[in-house]
């Protein structure tokens, strides 16, 4: 539903009833914080119990047809042919220069590929998919891209997620592993559920019919351990988990090698290539080249924000911060940055310029906070 220049999700009135403070994000009016808890409170509550994040602004697509794997493997780096039914994978849309056009989660369904990508790239991604689908269709390929507009997307994240969802499904979710998905009825509503998220915690992303989104969300909120959370907490949680935000930590000029995302490239794809920009990307992988690397930093003093300069101990500018926050779970200031190759190794001492002051920093491994994904 349109409201001026901003769109609203199906949960807008529910957010409003809970005292949400809204702000614009990717063309949507999205909840940032709530009356009963700020971003810090939501962050810590998610780590201890669980929170609900409305992520309905993200793009959901379904790709069908007998040539769907061949089609999408042209656009992303994942090995989709070998992805088992019910399994999900993080992948990257790439461009001719080897840059990342977006990151995406792809789930193999028995008759389709279910693709979730970023709200800020939604129109660009959909146009990209449609353009290439039409080109393949013109050559006789059997493939079709369907934009899913009648479903909301709700993320339930935190240690209490499984037991909360089980109460509404009657299904034992203990055997459902991280990065898998299946169809589950929640309060009698058919939903597509993936065990994934953007917080580093165990949790689920629930694609639910929009007209049932409020009822399902209210059902989850019946557990007193569950609270609504907004974009403020989502950002600090994902940064503690070492997860990239598209447009900040990765963009169309960043290659997988530079972003330390080579692991998203399937083994077969590293041999066969066949995706856009493969010549550039695979050459960098083979030579371990690229001029910069994404790193994690722990910073002394005030928190560093995006675009803060990173310096060598001798004062040479060697990089730039892309995201930074005070980490509530650690009591430290953390950041992601890109630095010249050679300054990216663990424990390398660096400096970060904050408010015209040079502050000590050290390269650390990510995630900053250990992940709690549900694995065997």
TrEMBL record:
Keywords: Aminotransferase, Mitochondrion, Transferase, Transit peptide. One of its GO terms (cellular component) is glycine cleavage complex. It is found in: Mitochondrion. InterPro entries: GcvT, GcvT/YgfZ/DmdA, GcvT/YgfZ_C, GcvT_C, GCVT_N, TrmE/GcvT-like. Substrate binds at residue 205. Residues 11-267 form the GCVT N-terminal domain. One of its GO terms (biological process) is glycine catabolic process. Its EC number is 2.1.2.10. It catalyses: N(6)-[(R)-S(8)-aminomethyldihydrolipoyl]-L-lysyl-[protein] + (6S)-5,6,7,8-tetrahydrofolate = N(6)-[(R)-dihydrolipoyl]-L-lysyl-[protein] + (6R)-5,10-methylene-5,6,7,8-tetrahydrofolate + NH4(+). Residues 292-369 form the Aminomethyltransferase C-terminal domain. The glycine cleavage system catalyzes the degradation of glycine. This is Aminomethyltransferase.
